[in-house]
Amino acid sequence: MRVLCLATLLVASSLLPAQGVTWVVDQAGGPGSQFTQIAPAVTAAANGDIIVIRSGTYFGFATSKALTLLGEGDVVIVVGPGLPFPPGPPPVSISNLPAGTAFVAHNLRIEYWNFRNGLELRDNQGRVHLQDVSVNLIAVPQESGAAASITRCDAVTWNGGHLNGRPCVLANQSVLAFSSLRVEGSDSCGSARCASIGAEEGMLLSSCTVQLSRCEVTGGSGVGLFTPLARGRPAISANHSALTVSGDDTTTVAAGDSGYGVTTPVPAILTTGGRVDLDTAVPIMGSLGGAEVAGTATVTRRRIVSVVATGGGLGDSLDVEVVSPAGDVVNLVISLPIAPVAVPPGLVFLDPRLIVPLFVGSQSATGRLELGVPIPTIEALRGATVALQAANVYAATGLVEFSNPAVAVLHDV
Q1: What was the pLDDT predicted at 176?
Q2: How far apart are alpha carbons 12 and 380 in whole angstroms?
Q3: Measuring CA to CA, how many Å separate 146 from each of 183, 289, 354?
Q4: H/E/C letters for each residue in the chain?
Q5: Strand partners, 67
Q6: Cα–chain-centroid distance for residue 402?
Q7: C-alpha closest to that of 312 among 321, 320, 304
Q8: How far apart are CA 287 and CA 94, in angstroms?
Q9: Would you place residue 142 in the very low, low, confident or very high pLDDT band (cuts 50, 70, 90)?
Q10: Contact assessment for residue 156 and residue 121, using Cβ atoms and an 8 Å cutoff
Q11: How many CB atoms lie within 10 A of CB 4?
Q12: Which tens digit of pLDDT belongs to each residue from 53-105?
């Protein structure tokens, strides 16, 4: 454990760039705060600054700056509605980040209304790292609007959170790595609210590279008060995209149920071209006898190494889990995140110059490696991001493969 603590300290403190100014946003105007809304703080902040947001309800904002937003307590950002209603607060929009920079957010909940997107990421050559960020469509009835609209982004990692929308993720020409994320396409009638139009997919992907690890992705259900004959939707529709789904039986990809009397099968994943790699340990479920994958993608089914990380509070620990076949050789490392680089074993999401080994050895008989990385109580670490990734040597074939990245934001407990 001392070795792991030292590794974290080396990666997350001495190798990190110096932090900028810390700003405090407090809706109640409490002690030590400079702003009561996020947008003015974003305007005042410079690249590299940290914005601490205390519990409260806030409006959306737009930025092209490399900032770190850390929510404390229950932070809610309200977006919309858009037309045809009188326009409400704007979406949270991150765009045009320069290469070599990063926007980081931890512990935020975005609630958005009809005819708006909740979160918009657009034209970012820099990285976007989100942890424990949720985006939910709360309008009644639920109409159009993506929880997360992602366009031409070179690297988006999303670790933990809950998305609900029409659809949840609408992505184009982007590289995405999601872990421990729950993604639910809106139903034609949700558990507490109904919509006047049919259900939506959990994810709509076009020309994207996407890695899902330990995620739950479901399509919207067609069982609704206003649309009782609506057809359920696939969990994922992928157009000329490369999709990898890894993990264990806590990962699920499932089509939504259809309305009364509907008999048409619904696949879990609907494709046009591209490639789909599925871990054989992950349940992939169509509805009404629908296929796991339908369409024209090239599909492979095999065991795939998977990494997740939770926690990361200062003075606590970062809990890491690697799932791979028993007996495989696992090499788990930690470093600083970078934009993904393609190499023969897969995509590398961490800086190879700063790699610190955490574990090298054979995977256990359970196929599950668990370890805790202690986080020192050092103020300079707050808001830092660290990336973990595993190189796995498959005992059955001798082939080497890189896992998905697990990018964690270090924060106050």
Answers
A1: 98
A2: 9
A3: 12, 28, 37
A4: CHHHHHHHHHHHHHCCCCCCCEEEECCCCCCCCCECCHHHHHHHCCCCCEEEECCEEEECCEECCCCEEEECCCEEEEECCCCCCCCCCCCEEEECCCCCCEEEEEEEEEEECCCCCCEEEEEEEEEEEEEEEEEEECCCCCCCECCEEEEEEEEEEEEEEEEEEECCEEEECCEEEEEEEEEEECCCECCCCECCCCCCCCEEEECCEEEEECCEEECCCCCCCCCCCCCCCCCEEEECCEEEEECCCCCEEECCCCCCCCCCCECCEEEECCEEEEECCCCEECECCCCCEEECCEEEEECCCEEEEEECECCCEEEEEEECCCCCEEEEEEECEEEEEEECCEEEEECHHHCEEEEEEECCCCCEEEEEEECCCCHHHCCCEEEEEEEEECCCCCCEEECCCEEEECECC
A5: none
A6: 19
A7: 320
A8: 36
A9: low
A10: yes
A11: 20
A12: 999 999 999 999 999 999 999 999 999 876 666 677 889 999 999 999 999 99
The terminus-to-terminus CA distance of the chain in angstroms comes to 20
Structure tokens belonging to residue 92: 């949270």
Cα atoms found within 13 Å of the Cα of residue 45, Cβ hemisphere only: 30
Q: What residues pair up with 102 in beta bridges, in sequence order?
A: 127
Task: Give the Cα separation of 167 and 353 in Å (integer).
Answer: 39
Question: pTM for this structure?
Answer: 0.92
Burial level of 174, CB count in 10 A (0-12/13-18/19+)? buried
CA-based R_g, the chain, Å: 21
- Cα–Cα distance for residue pair 268/347, rounded to 1 Å: 25
Find tokens 């810390």 and name the residue. Answer: 22
- Looking only at the bridges linking them, the beta strands covering 216-218 and 317-323 are unpaired
What are the residues whose beta carbons fall under 8 Å from the beta carbon of 279, sequence distance 6 or more? 245, 246, 247, 248, 251, 301, 302, 303, 304, 306
Task: Give the chain's largest Cα–Cα span.
Answer: 63
Token representation of residue 38: 């996020």
Q: How far apart are CA 148 and CA 137, in angstroms?
A: 11
Burial class (CB in 10 A: 0-12, 13-18, 19+), 49: buried
Place of tokens 């020192």: 376
Contacts (Cβ under 8 Å, ≥6 apart) of 250: 214, 216
Residue recorded with tokens 């054989």: 280
